[in-house]
Amino acid sequence: MGFQAVGANVSRSNHLVSLDLADYGQKRTTVRLDNLVLAAGPWTPALFQMLFPASSIDLEPVTDASDWIVFENPKPMSAKTIGAVYLDDIVGEKLEFAGRNDHTIWATGKRSHAGVVPTVGRTPEVDQASLDELHADAEVFLKHGQGEDRELHVLSQGRSYRPTTQTGMPIIAGVPADRLSVNSSIWPLETTKKSVYVNFGHGSHGILLGMGSGKLMSQIIRGEKTDINVSKMGFS
């Protein structure tokens, strides 16, 4: 059974105490915890604001959306072969094709900053004009040498989001206690103690950087020296 975070409980010293969860039947439960890492991709800013509405932090996300199509490969490769082709320099904008070992070709085209990130659980709305343009490009590049009478078979299509920040630098940091809520002006703070962490804003490199940023996050939480300097990956 899945649960959704619906609220956070913070102590007088701005230290996270527990998280309120609700299942799909809206039955609620409270889980006590020591630390919370927010790494929900494009939904991270909305989740942070919902859980900590009194925080002085604004993640200021920049959404880079892109539509994609998965085609049946007209000339399948072996099960051990994958390959990618980037045609940005040829067509003057983002265009790439990736042949995968499941006999499909994944294609994506130009970026769009106009898309709206849907609420969790809802399917993103595609830009049909963008998909039509991507399909036309596929007709040119994927059918080359395959015969003009052979149609490309679309298996699936959709839209993905690559969230980043205003500076383009990802955030991999703990939230300072004095910025978690407005209580900081009333109660004394444990200024060096953090309990909420954010791992967000990797743009189009999220999957590539996932394992490394996860390791850095664990090092930060454990108070260890990080493998690289993360001083510029904090909050403005």
Automatic annotation (TrEMBL):
Pfam families: DAO. InterPro entries: FAD-dep_OxRdtase (IPR006076), FAD/NAD-bd_sf (IPR036188). Residues 15-219 form the FAD dependent oxidoreductase domain. GO terms for biological process: retrograde transport, endosome to Golgi. It comes from the Eukaryota. One of its GO terms (cellular component) is late endosome. This is FAD dependent oxidoreductase domain-containing protein. It comes from Ramalina farinacea.
